[in-house]
Amino acid sequence: MYVARESTKLWRRVCAETTAELQLLFEKWQLLLAGLVFQYIHGLAARGVHYLHRPGPLLQDLGFMALPELGQEKGYLSESVFTFIFISFLLWSFHPFIYHSKRFYTVLLWRRVLAFLVASQFLRIITFYSTQLPGPNYHCREGSKLATLPPPNNALEVLLLNFPRGVLFGCGDLIFSSHMIFTLVFVRTYHKYGSNRLIKLLSWLMAIIQSLLIIASRKHYTVDVVVAWYTVNLVVFFVDKKLPEMPDRTTGLSLLPVSTKDKDGKMKEELHKLEKDGRMMDEFHKLLNGNTVDATDWMNGKHGEDMNHTVSDATPTGT
């Protein structure tokens, strides 16, 4: 019986949250769609710079000197950490559908996250097209067949990105690290809207470990990771200042946007109340000051029973 009762509560909570999120999605879908489309544009730009990449000797790098090379067979470590961070954030962003305690709407959160990602990725595209460095990854080095790409036979070959091989074995899109963009955006977002202090500390620790693993795997130069750390943090800081703050749902108030008709109706009701209260207060002051009130006003019902009681109480006995 307990499981059945809790299951019913959970289902009602999911349905109610889905209804609220869909209402927000119908109003904010343009910006969300634009953010998702830009993810494809970012992948297209990374694919395009691969045609410009020319392999060469590895550049002198302080991180390469300090960190031992993991080797090609252990390159999965950095990808495993990144996958864990990505999936963890994705699941956490949808927790308002299940948990009773919640601070944000999922649609509004991802709208904010995509704004951070688009701004950072736009700067990244400009940066890696400005200067092409010889890739340090194993498939980008001299002698590898994947280090350079022959000219495309048709536009479709470029537009399809050769997915997923073209995404996993890209070269030339170095400064600055795309993995660190996602990692830092996710960590900073949880740091602001998350509630568990221990998880916040662990998320920053995971970001540091991710940075070291990227360098040790020779997937990026140290400069790619360092630039990502200060660029993404500055982008998130300034973009966050420009965006309207998300409503805090811990207050328990209904903060869903209403339609224009509802807003107009509520505004008219408030104005009507204010006008009515203002007239009643004016007549009340007239009575207290000994002024007469027009009898037609009383006949038209502008003053209620509460007003009569108030006046009778305020009038001294025997007058």
From TrEMBL:
Localization per record: Membrane
Domain Sphingomyelin synthase-like: residue ranges: 170-238
InterPro entries: Sphingomyelin_synth-like, Sphingomyelin_synth-like_dom
Biological process (GO), any one: ceramide biosynthetic process
Transmembrane segments: 31-52, 76-97, 109-129, 166-186, 198-215, 221-239
Claim: Cytoplasm is one of the keywords in the record: no
Coiled coil region boundaries: none
PANTHER family: PHOSPHATIDYLINOSITOL:CERAMIDE INOSITOLPHOSPHOTRANSFERASE, SPHINGOMYELIN SYNTHETASE
Family membership: Belongs to the sphingomyelin synthase family.
Protein name: Sphingomyelin synthase-like domain-containing protein
Native source organism of the sequence: Miscanthus lutarioriparius
